[in-house]
Automatic annotation (TrEMBL), chain A:
It holds the Pfam family AAA_23. It comes from the Bacteria. Residues 5-236 form the Rad50/SbcC-type AAA domain. SUPFAM superfamilies: P-loop containing nucleoside triphosphate hydrolases. Heterodimer of SbcC and SbcD. Residues 215-283, 424-475 form a coiled coil. It comes from Jeotgalibacillus marinus. Belongs to the SMC family. SbcC subfamily. InterPro entries: P-loop_NTPase, Rad50/SbcC_AAA. Keywords: Coiled coil. The keyword Acyltransferase does not apply. This is Nuclease SbcCD subunit C. Gene3D superfamilies: P-loop containing nucleotide triphosphate hydrolases.
Automatic annotation (TrEMBL), chain B:
Residues 4-31 form a coiled coil. This is Uncharacterized protein. Keywords: Coiled coil. It comes from Jeotgalibacillus marinus.
Amino acid sequence: MIFNKIELHNFRQFYGTQEIIFSIKDGKHVTVIHGENGSGKTALLNAFNWCLYGKTDLPKPNDLINEFAYSEMDKLGKVEMYIELEFKSRQTEYLLRRTLKFEEKDKWTFAKDTTGEVTLKYYSDDRYKEIGNPSIELNQILPENMRNYFFFDGERIDNLSKQEDSLEIKEAIKTIMDLEVLERSIEHTKSVKKQFMDEFKENTNDSTKLVVNQLENATSKLDNMKVELDQVKNNISIRKSQKQDIEIKLSKIDSIAVIQQERMELEKEKGKSEMELRDVSKKITQKISKEGYLAITRSLVHRVSERLEETNNTRSSRVEVPIRVLKTIIENDKCICGTSLSDGQDALAEIKHLLDHSSPDNEATSYAYLSGDNKLVDSYRNRFFEDLTDLRKREANLIEHIDDTMNRIEEKSAEISKRDFEDLNGLEKKRKTFELEIESYQKDLGLLENSIENYEREIKDLEKQLAEQKEIESKAVISKKRYETSAKILDVMEQIHIIKENEVKVELKERLKKVYSYFLRKEYSIDLSSDFTLIVKNKSQKKVAMSQGERQITSLSFIGAIVEMAREKYNKRSGNGIGEGGIYPLVMDSPFGALDSDHRKRVAQGVHKLSDQIIVILSTSQWKGQVEESLSNYVGSSYTLDYQAPMVSGDPSFEFTKIEVSSK
Amino acid sequence: MENVNTLEEVLMRLDNREKKMLKNILDLEKAALDRNSQKRVQIKKEIYDVIKMGVKSE
């Protein structure tokens, strides 16, 4: 998405119709808009937001129309305001206009609903054609939940590294990297698969119908549980992060810093032991399910051994002739007792009978093998018990250690609670609440994981049963094949999604680190966790509480890394429709406001590289000096918001802003 | 560490006919994203047809 033009009509300070044409020239892709305090910089940033999503972050959101224009209603009977945006997205030109209309009867009752009317058109066959679902289309072009990052308010930007934003980050990555196509395909193929299953059911017998119903039931329960599992996991991450934030705050209170540090160490140790315990418990379960049968082999081994002994004793009274001896006798036509076999038919028949009933290994060998195997079973059984005892011991030790650590944590907590410090009790209480919530979520998680495992097993069994159904009507055969094919394709789509999401995550991590180290002076490192949380750590790998400027740089680095990566993917796109990225703009209001001079210089030097279109709205004092030096070479167009003080030519008087092409 | 297959490994699970169906479905979805709301409404029917035509007889 690249903006060509914005037209403002009676919006906030902007009276009448005024426009800004954005620079899209290669190498001159920065548009600078200068404005002093109160001239409408933030209003301009919000004009993008309002036009695209019908929302603003302005202090009086219902008060969008220009006061001067509104006052003209007496004369005109009605008045309107609108914002029009001309932009290009994935080779298509769009024209978007959002309008609010006021009539005489509404006078002085400013619109409660400021969403307005929206029309979105795209250019095709030499004309603009209107789009039926503008909000859906716009959300696909630039997702609404990311508006604060693309329309970046330097003075209000919040901390992107908060856990609560991890879902937003995930969504943004998905949309911007163009995984939407794949996700929609998965969703739709799922319902098509169900349709084939229904067709199959219609044409089949009652017993098969029963299996299909059970299968459908189990699949739908499994799907619901997976959604629930994701929610519980997300809740755990949020609470953990909130708890961690409180712990960082506590470690900054001098009087308890040491105890808090010790408590954090103990928490870490507890976490490690809990992980180890989970591992040991898993090993115990696996051992029992794989080798548990050995536990009941004792009497069986004993009985086999007795029987073998008995057989061996009986066998010793018989003489067994080896096969090769019998074969030689037949070849020689003569028995070892001298009887000629050709003469005596009975003798030959007897030898042949012996040959037919001899095993390659004679009884003695078989006895040896069986006794050996029987003893081996016994030794496996002993080893199974030894291993299990060891694992159980480790499990008990770990449980004891965790209990002990928990007691020590409790002691530290009690010590902290005793200290007298403003806010301390509040922080401790919150910490405890989060801790209890985490415990409760973890219990839910365990139960859900178990149920999911059971349902997955049940589904596999039912699918096997279904595959074995023999009496299927010929009509049903084809539906079943179609169902199986859609299931196979669906499975591959889901795998591709995992691969693509992983690819994006790995690449984004690297890019983020690069941009961050370039922008930020301190030796902080940034990481993207497996659940898409941004984690900023200091040199000693501890999570840090950031200043406003550092938060701003973190947010800018994140969005910059995504925009840069999406652009690269778009330029290298293969045309297969999966994860092809796109071009995105960055619109920034006062991006350098909270930065010190060194950080200002670093950001100014690097920001033009992040996107194919940069629109910067800032005051002259922010522009002058390092920012101007670093950015002016890339500026393609420049405007000034010229603030006009209230007119005294009559009553009432109104202030307004004129947008002028600037020579700066 | 989660064991993730490569794209090639995953695609190998499909035969040529199934690969073609997968490509058709993705193309349809891509087209449906392109503002044509009519296609959007029909997308499930279109995917249904892709598989129906792809798996015709014995």
